[in-house]
Amino acid sequence: MIAQNLITDGILPLKTSDTGKTALSWMEDYKLSHLPIVNDKEFLGLISEMDIYELNNFDEPLGNHTLSLKNPYVYESQHVFDVLKLVNTLGLSLIPVLNDQNQYIGSITLLTLLSTIAEVLSLDSPGGLIALEMSINDYSLTEIANIVESNNAKILSTVVLNQPDSTRIEVVLKLNTIELKGIIQTFERYDYTVKAFLDEKHDQEDLKERYDSLMKYLNV
Known about the structure:
4-stranded antiparallel beta sheet; CBS-domain; 2 domains; elongated; single chain; 3-stranded mixed beta sheet; alpha+beta
């Protein structure tokens, strides 16, 4: 799934002639803390609430503001995981999308992105999550699957994440069961490090809370 397919409908970009007051009003309406600034199709930058408050002149045109964010955009052909990584790194509520001519074509909100990630990782399917940590040399998906299946469960999706400047990785499993105790015990018996787990008790959390939990454990 690529960025072009994730663009959120109904998000209008700001112009350099708009004021900070206008930007804050739109942010409140959209429930966002960032909005793109675009003249015609030229993407000029992403402004945040903090940028506006720091200038402390809400009637000042946005073109007079200094923007704190660097390269806050993705190209339409980038994969959803690339989008997620940049949004998480920069702490964004919205990410602009450009075409290969560097023209602005729309934006992806955090809520749209999280809903897509939930779908990709089968988070909306019944079942739990287990995050394992190990050396890359010890990684065997066959062995991991055998452990899961020996407990009468199935893996619905798998994500492997490299840790920066390390030979260790994290393997995140989405399973088709919420009964994780026996599976976790089996992993520990085989000397796997279970870094985190999420079961169906977390279904009452909202999507943002689930995102925060995943980012904390996965360190994307």
